[in-house]
Amino acid sequence: MEAVESLAELLDEREHLLEIARWRFGSPATADRAVQETYRRWYALDPLERAQIAEPRAWLAQVAGTISLDGLEPDEVDPLVHRFALACTTGDVRALRATLAEDATVITDAGGNLRTSPHPLRGADQVAAYVSTLLTRRPGANLTTEPVNGHPGLVLRNRTQAIAVITLTTTPTHIATVYIVLNPKKLTPWHVS
């Protein structure tokens, strides 16, 4: 019975931390990453340090609420995603193209609210030019790398409002598909407070 109570407490604690991180980051996938990092920091403490923490739940909640995801260990595709994001931010079409597979595809979902290509565009040159035009040099906008529905991705925000959410599918060496959501109705969950 005691083990079951401990497991229930552990699951309750994790859900509590996820709620804090979701509130902070606005993205379930990013929240999960923040909670993983919170637990990593807890277990990195030596037993004496942990024993001196009077309220472990409060300590974990504080870490989850103040954690910065900058500088965390990237997964295998993060360097490619970061190169893509940097090329978008700087408007470097050549560098953007270098991240793309030759047969790369871009698909845009604007929900009929913006003029975008009605059909997927194919080929690294076309995709690079299109993505560069759509995402680069937006005054006041900030492009961040974030997991999107379990895939590598980016979120373009103007302060707290999401402007675009980009999902990337990758091969071991290149980006194969760029899926850009511009539909305001689908962007609401990506706004941050």
Automatic annotation (TrEMBL):
<protein>
    <submittedName>
        <fullName>SnoaL-like protein</fullName>
    </submittedName>
</protein>
<dbReference type="InterPro" id="IPR013325">
    <property type="entry name" value="RNA_pol_sigma_r2"/>
</dbReference>
<dbReference type="InterPro" id="IPR032710">
    <property type="entry name" value="NTF2-like_dom_sf"/>
</dbReference>
<dbReference type="GO" id="GO:0016987">
    <property type="term" value="F:sigma factor activity"/>
</dbReference>
<dbReference type="GO" id="GO:0006352">
    <property type="term" value="P:DNA-templated transcription initiation"/>
</dbReference>
<dbReference type="InterPro" id="IPR052704">
    <property type="entry name" value="ECF_Sigma-70_Domain"/>
</dbReference>
